[in-house]
Amino acid sequence: MVAVHALGISGILSILIVFLRMPFLKSVIPEPDRIFDLSLVIHVNFSVLVWLCSISSILISMAVQEKTKFFSYTWGLSAVGTVLIALSAISKDSIPIKSNYIPVIDNSTFFVGLTLFFAGVVLNTLPLLYRRNALTSSPISAGVYGISAMLTAVLICFTSAHAVTSNTTDRLYFYEQIFWGAGHMLQGVFSQAFLVVLLLEMKNCKLTHPYLLSAVFLLNTASILIASASHVIYPSDFDALATFFTWHMRIAEGVIPLFLVFFALCNTRAIMQSSNRHLLYSTVMFIYGSILGILSMHGTVTIPAHYHGCVVGMTAAFMGFVYTILPSLGYREVSLKWRNAQLGLYSIGQILHITGLELLGGYGALRKVTYLPDTASKIAKHCFSFGGALAILGGFLFVFLALLCIYRGQQGKGASLASV
User: Fold this and answer.
1) Neighbours of 262 (CB within 10 A)
2) Where would you find the membrane-spanning parts of this chain (predicted)?
3) Domain range list for the chain
4) Are the C-beta atoms of residues 146 and 140 closer than 8 Å to each other?
5) Interior CA angle at 250 toward 320 and 220, to 5°?
């Protein structure tokens, strides 16, 4: 519920973001740039942090067979935090700061909300962390256990970063310092959740030997746990930390993306099936974003397109996963026809949008291709705009279909990893 509602709100804000770039509306609305920045901060946090952390928490909850009120309390805590994050934007003292990974609104309401949300996420991991048998029961269970451990490591990294960082007058630089490491580590958490969902959705596929999968999950988890101690090793050298986490993402966190490439190539026939169409879309976008990440190694101009591609690739897979677990939770099932239509619309739109973003720049990035011919420039602009519109429409269709099933269905037996 938290995940779907957050994604819906982020979709509404994405429309507002587009409108606020139109000259006519900018001349009518007071402080359009400030409203744009506030909307962008909430949009990014809801569509990335809240959405992806919520899906990761769902996987953790499903791994614990016995359901208790504890999970209701943690989800309630996260829901209250999400509401406060949204409300922070309407405060008079709201100051948007577009820091990397976790952009913030520099007021107490936002940080209370962020604290409550992530506290709920981390507390949700405790029941699984106490179950050591989860490490040996199956590779997927070990992967989910790793997600729990990594989320705790992210909290440790952020706490240690905040403890050693002096509160400077340059607020952007301050938040870059405290969120840089934890933000990088979160990407490792999300990619592991992506692989877990991929394995849950696909049956009888290649490259699924227990030892191989366990090794992939172990390498990714160990790299994140080790990285959480970086602020202890480099307590006052942010340049060294920034370089460390950048290369950590390129090498250590590259294990799962590299495995996904081989996994997709070896299971092309299974991914092409109509029931797995969302996995095809998500894998293509994720690999596309990863390729753009390789291209960004010698500059920053492709980073927004790279990050966008990887995030929406995971989002498409998680949308399909939500469709899959709805019946297990006692809600109505979305027909395969509607699922494929929605995900196809969303994915085509995002690919066009990412391509336009790569060519034209955007979200503060420089233009990648400086001397585009007029015709090519117009095509790139249309890709960026038309693709964005299709992606927004596809995102709204997902929220509509999911909430329609949730509010019109009756909740029944809870899902577990064994029942999916």
Assistant:
1) 11
2) 7-24, 44-63, 70-90, 110-130, 142-165, 177-200, 212-234, 254-272, 279-299, 305-331, 343-366, 386-407
3) 1-131
4) no
5) 60
